[in-house]
Specification:
The protein has 17 helices and 9 strands. By secondary structure, the protein is an alpha+beta fold. β5 and β6 form a beta hairpin.
């Protein structure tokens, strides 16, 4: 008869299932909100993560429970683990059920009494207040930087090349292309375009940080054509006016086409002009300039200066917009794609983290169904994230495309360590909050700590990686696990003991575990209404706890 196993599974799902539903739902919503980010990498990652969390929850609530049920039947039938077709010898010693584990006894006897004593509570509050203050300071100071160089392995020759270029060629940076459109307007502003270099001089020391034009970093087809017409225009039969340019637009286009063709005297400018399909109209031309190298030293490492790169891009656009006497133009540099990310990544980080934490608070409120507990859990998670950001500053990490993804991931991970404790606190009966917090730690603390340790060990080996991506991932995961466990297993129980609300009406009475026996005694007196069911409940309790522990 499988009735008893079905009841145990149902009761386990009603308790542990509610807990994993809270954490899964908060994780899913946090990632789903961040999938709306303007950063494509962050949006794609969060969308992928939210879908995975949904399927993990579905499998945990269905397939895993079914497997546990089958395994419980195997144990009941006294069959072997791997060779389940064979029976084991029946033990003569009576099976008294599962005993309380080592970690549960540690939380009950040592951990909870230490942090829930009056001195323990005072020390915990002071310690985490200081930790939060340091986190706020580090969060304010945490910079946005261009960490592209960190992706290069330390022992790569490219590192040496970059360092040599920084030392010996500081004025040689990223190429800048200024594209002018509308052929008629280009012809009208031909003289200004030919002398464009005069407008770009003296800009190397301040935004837009454009290098002084010379024969190596500056290329202007209009300047080249003007010089060519001045020296060879008469010999090739081009009729020019007093200004030295062709007298009409059609002759200008024909001369420019002939000059800048691949076999012409201005062949190096061949890719700098765009003609119509029949070659009769000039659609656009571009002028090449160059930025100076914008680097800085951050904690002993040479990085491209993201702040000055943003200033350079914005100043370049403003400068070109002010050229109203020239043809319509727009600037482009290959670095603009990365710089656009630098401009919004800071805002995107705090916006997505803030929305994720707010969503976590709402979901916890709906699932835990108590505003005080939901508020304590949410504040606990928010403090944890702020302290992670502060620790990143202390460890020399910066805000970039790698760390911003991991921070959003940290919201999903840190909620797990707090939501389990908060939910378990609400299902513990009684009026003594210290006792309820103690029982919560003894009941679910071991599972939370085991989950944290497995997560930490999974990424610990990456701490020694030479890859910037893996090393950053490992550091942030280690911070998330460490701070998340500290908040979930130390700060939150203290807050619940001090400010925790009354338990659910259906909360179970607090139980005593006798040392060495693993039997359960009720502290709550038995009322006439439940006398008929008490004997059966006592018999099933030990086995039910074991089933629930495996499910959690």
């Amino acid at each position: 008869d499988d009735t008893s196993l079905i009841k145990r599974g149902a009761r386990a799902l009603s308790r542990a299932g509610a807990s994993i539903t809270v954490t899964s739902l908060t994780d899913l919503v946090a990632f789903a909100i961040s999938s709306s980010s303007a950063l494509p990498a962050l949006a794609s990652f969060c969308a992928f993560a939210s879908i995975n969390i949904l399927f993990l929850w579905m499998l945990a609530a269905t397939f895993f429970v079914a497997c546990m049920f089958i395994d419980e039947k195997r144990q009941r039938d006294n069959r072997r683990d791997c060779l389940c077709c064979f029976n084991r010898k029946v033990d003569e010693v009576e099976d008294t059920g599962s005993k309380e584990g080592f970690l549960s006894r540690y939380f009950r006897r040592y951990h909870a009494p230490a942090i829930l004593s009056r001195p323990g509570k005072m020390f915990t509050l002071v310690f985490f207040s200081v930790l939060f203050g340091l986190g706020v300071y580090g969060t304010i100071k945490l910079p946005v930087e261009d960490s592209a160089r960190n992706f290069i392995p330390v022992d790569s020759y490219i590192k040496d090349f970059s360092e040599a270029a920084d030392t010996y060629f500081p004025s040689s940076g990223e190429a800048l292309y200024i594209t002018f459109t509308n052929g008629e307007e280009i012809y009208k502003s031909r003289e200004g375009l030919a002398t464009l270099d005069t407008r770009l001089r003296g800009l190397s020391e301040e935004p837009p940080y454009i290098a002084e034009p010379n024969d190596y970093n500056y290329q202007n087809v209009m300047a080249g054509l003007k010089d060519y017409l001045a020296t060879d225009g008469a010999s090739i039969g081009v009729v020019t006016g007093e200004d030295g340019w062709p007298t009409n637009y059609e002759d200008f286009v024909a001369t420019l086409r002939s000059y800048a063709q691949f076999m012409g005297p201005g062949a190096k400018y061949a890719q700098d002009i765009a003609l119509s399909s029949d070659g009769s109209d000039l659609e656009a031309l571009r002028v090449k300039a160059e930025y100076v190298r914008l680097t800085k030293t951050y904690r002993g490492e040479v990085l491209d200066d993201a702040s000055r790169q943003i200033d350079a891009m914005d100043a370049t656009r403003s400068m070109i917009s002010s050229w109203t006497d020239l043809a319509p133009a727009f600037p482009y540099s290959a670095t603009f794609i990365a710089i656009e990310r630098f401009k919004i990544i800071n805002t995107e980080l705090y916006r997505n983290v803030g929305l994720a934490i707010a969503a976590v608070g709402i979901i916890v409120l709906i699932t835990v169904a108590n505003i005080v507990t939901a508020l304590l859990i949410t504040v606990n998670v928010a403090f944890c994230i702020i302290e992670i950001l502060g620790a990143m500053f202390a460890l020399g990490l910066v805000i970039d495309s790698v760390s911003v993804i991991n921070i959003v991931l940290a919201v999903g991970l840190s909620i797990d360590y707090s939501a389990h404790i908060g939910h378990c606190f609400m299902v513990k009966g009684g009026t003594d909050n210290d006792a309820r917090a103690t029982e919560s730690l003894a009941d679910i603390g071991a599972s939370v700590l085991n989950g944290a340790m497995s997560t930490f060990l999974a990424v610990a080996v990456l701490l020694f990686s030479k890859s910037y991506v893996f090393r950053t991932l490992a550091i942030q995961f280690a911070l998330t696990v460490t701070l998340g466990v500290l908040h979930g297993l130390i700060l939150l129980p203290v807050l619940l003991a001090l400010f925790g609300p009354k338990p659910f009406a259906s909360a179970e009475p607090i139980k005593d575990v006798n040392e060495g026996e693993g039997t359960v005694e009720k502290k709550e007196s038995i009322s006439p209404m439940n006398t008929a069911h008490e004997t059966q409940h006592e018999v099933e309790q030990v086995g039910e706890d074991a089933f629930e522990e495996n499910t959690a």
